[in-house]
Amino acid sequence: MAGIFITLLFYINIFPGIFIPTSSFQETTDTSSINKRNQDLLLNSRRNPDMVIPLAHQTLEESKKINFRKGTADALLVLGSAWLAKSFNKTDSAQNYTMQAYDLYRELDNNLGKARACYYLSYVFSIKGNLQEAERYASLSLNFFEESGDNRGIINSYSVLSYLSEQKKDFKNAVAFIQQAIDIARKTRDTVSLANVTNSLGNIYHKMALFKQAIDAYFETLRLSELKHDSSGIAMANGNIGLMYYHQTDWERALEFSFRSLTIFKAMNNLWEVSKIYNSIATIYNSKARYDSALLYFREGLKLDYQMNYPTGIASSYNNIASTCLLLSQPDSAEWYINKALAIATEISDPDLVNYYVTLGHVLKTKGYKTRALETLNKAYSMAMEKGLPLVVHDVSKLLSDLYSSMNRNDLAYKYLKEYHQLKDSITNADYLKQVTRMELQYDFDKKQKAADYERIKERIRHENQIRLQRRAMAGLGILIILTALISFLFIKHNRLRSRLTQIDLEQRLLRAQMNPHFIFNSLCAVQDFILAGKPQKANTFLTKIAKLMRNILENSREEFIPLEKEIETVKLYLDLQKLRFDEEFDYDIRLDETIDPENFSIPPMLTQPCVENSIEHGLLTMKEKGNIKISYSLTDGLMKLEVTDNGIGRKEAGVRTSEKKNKKSVSTQLTRERLENFRKTMRQKYISYEITDLYNNNQAAGTRVVMMLPYRKIYA
After folding, report:
1. Is 506 exposed, middle or buried (0-12, 13-18, 19+ CB in 10 A)?
2. Could you tell me if 146 and 158 are in contact, meaning their C-beta atoms sit under 8 angstroms apart?
3. 590 has which bridge partners?
């Protein structure tokens, strides 16, 4: 019966996801939005490939349009993952997209991206039957995950390497790799991963016919999965425990555990596992001589295999149906099905091809083609011995013994019969049956013990609550203290709310200062001048930038804190507009401390632009030589230091151009001071400040420097 139970395990659980509505993927060219969209799509690529593929193409085009290379690489990785999940017959598409992603990640020196791409490529080449390339990419993924410090990725890479070793029937290395994964999962207390890799260890032991070790692993998987309420792990463990009962010929218990598994996987809509369980249940029904029921479940599994475009599963289902047809004394039908299985398995270089030779040999023997049967069964026997497959050797030995007996070659018949019984005794050893039963009883006892402990704890809590109620009746003073504390809390909360409202009012006033009619009018005049001067390209560029600037200002005004990269983007837009408007009369330079990741740090919005605006209008525009503005962000004493320096004529020399400008300057500066003062009070951070310094060179005005100490937040740890 070996080969009936498929062991190909997709460990693509680094990125488990849920359905994300299509409406959440609005069109945008913002890099942070593209990053978030790619994240969401990768989470869904395994479960909803049909939904993900068109959205990933959209994201790919948007990333290319703005030359966002990381976004491009991430979108290609999503497409590779989705095509891998969509169809086992579309591995060329999966390989093409994933390889493109890998090449881009290498150019970007993005280790995590390289790790994920290599991980998917190992599966692509595994499905294509190129185990050498699959192993190479799995090893690369392990190295890159280790460099990235991604423990979940390391665990899964070891799992893939174990699976590939298992495919080569190198069970020693398969066990060694999966043990590495188990050790890391235990050290990092990753219970879900620990359950997955422990289950994989049980599968390896099962193939090696080491049932005692397999039993221990499967019950440990069940314990860990129930601890985390992991439905998938619980279902997997139940199905595998059912297999253990199957090998001990306890058909009823085998069916009980298998149906438990089927119920859970159906509820999860996990077609892959449902198909496998259908085949397991059908095999058990064959052993109970309920062949009609067996055929029903085998054919249901075959339907799902076709639905998933999974050739390995299709071949296995055909093989299983052929075996059932033999039991029904239908050798012609059996021959048709096994030939279908062999054609598919040979085309895809199925590692389980040996099982199909066993069935073909059985068919040929039944139809009386003794010479061909002997040739086929001997081939299967040699392959099983070479690969160390005791379950297959067990099946083929019985067939060879019967065949040699019919040919009056009793010496060889006896030899293979003896080997068959030896293997049968080791597989159906009563000690193993006792072990399965003992483990189940122990597991049930532990659950009942935990339930009893829980009830005792509940009773103790009820008793303690009674005592607590009695004491509470005498604790009037305590109630008074609590009420006082509550009033104090509400008072503090009220003050914080009032402070936030003050902050919002200041932000709105600053917004009005930044979006004043004078600025908009001058901008539109600049557009008109470009058009009249025969510069439509400049006019178009100016309109695009001012539209995005206004959108950013409006969006930012609604938030208390925004990502630093968004603040910088807005300042750059304003500076670029002014450079266009004033014919490149000044340059600017924006610098970040190397410890600052602009995607990870957020600051209050609309604080940089007013300083820059004052520098341009009151310091640079009246200069004869070219002006320069320097903007820098750095961290110091738990605050972010914003410094804006210009080489203009200085405040004293600038004077007052118009009453409107004077008012605007004073308003924006005063509003900025008030906002920072409000932050200083509410956040109880006394070092939040705003300072303006006039710069001199040999007693000559040499510009102005504004220094602000700002609060900041980290977006992620």
Report:
1. buried
2. no
3. 631
What is the mean pLDDT of each successive set of 10 residues along the chain, which is 717 residues long?
A: 33 35 44 89 81 91 92 93 72 89 94 93 85 93 93 93 87 92 93 90 85 86 87 89 84 91 90 89 92 93 87 89 92 92 85 85 89 88 81 82 84 79 62 48 49 49 57 58 59 55 54 55 68 77 81 78 88 86 86 87 86 82 84 90 90 59 58 79 81 88 90 79
430-473 and 231-247 helices, crossing angle to 10°: 150
| 532 φ/ψ angles, rounded to the nearest 5 degrees | -65, -30
* Dihedrals phi, psi of 633, to nearest 5 degrees: -125, 130
Please tell me whether residue 649 adopts helix, strand or coil conformation: coil
Q: What are phi and psi of 194, to 5 degrees?
A: -60, -40
pTM of the model: 0.50
Here the tokens at position 703 are 């510009």
- What single string gives the DSSP state of each residue in 194-241? HHHHHHHHHHHHHHTT-HHHHHHHHHHHHHHHHHTT-HHHHHHHHHHH
Torsion (CA) 191, 194, 200, 202 in degrees, nearest 10: -90
Q: How many CB atoms lie within 10 A of CB 113?
A: 22
Separation between Cα atoms, residue 193 and residue 259, nearest integer Å: 24
Give the CA count within 13 Å in the CB-facing half-sphere of 188. 17
Residue type, 322: A
Specify the pLDDT at position 111.
93
Cα atoms in the 13 Å half-sphere on the side-chain side of 360 = 23
**Residues 6 or more apart whose Cβ sits within 8 Å of residue 374:** 361, 400, 403, 407
The CA-CA-CA angle for residues 215, 131, 38, to 5°, reads 90
From CA 272, how far away is CA 87, in angstroms rounded?
12
User: At 190, which helix (H) or strand (E)?
Assistant: none
Residues with Cβ within 8 Å of residue 255, at least 6 apart in sequence: 242, 281, 284
Tell me the C-alpha distance between 572 and 239, whole Å.
60
Amino acid, single-letter form, for residue 701: A
Q: What is the DSSP string of 308-352?
A: TT-HHHHHHHHHHHHHHHHHTT-HHHHHHHHHHHHHHHHHTT-TT
**C-alpha to C-alpha distance for 397 and 379, rounded to whole angstroms:** 12
Tell me the HSE value of 253 on the side-chain side, using a 13 A CA sphere. 15
Query: Which of 281, 221, 279 lies closest to 245, judged by CA?
Result: 281
Domains of the chain by start residue, with CATH: 1-149 (1.25.40.10), 496-714 (3.30.565.10)
Structure tokens at 82: 């989705």
Residues in the chain: 717
Q: Rounded to an integer, what distance in angstroms lies between the CA atom of residue 589 and that of residue 481?
A: 57
- CB distance 380 to 361 below 8 Å: yes
